[in-house]
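Please, structure for the following, as tokens.
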Amino acid sequence: LDQAEKLISGLPLLAVDAFVDYRSAAAAARASRLNGHPIRSIVDCLIAAVAARTGAALVHRDRDYDYLGEVLADLRVHTP
């Protein structure tokens, strides 16, 4: 837990804009499903929507974020 807290403590906290981000997340989930890639978690869609809106880079090991990167133009995804 201490190691995780140290890692997280240096990162900015991004706030959810409920009106914008929930709609964007739903639209991204729908678009990805229509592309043949249903997203397994709507929470992933919300995280991606916030990252896209704020310009934050999303570092991940989850293929769903790559699919979301195809439908959210401003989403910057990186796999380590």
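DSSP finds four helices and two strands in the chain. The radius of gyration is 13 Å.
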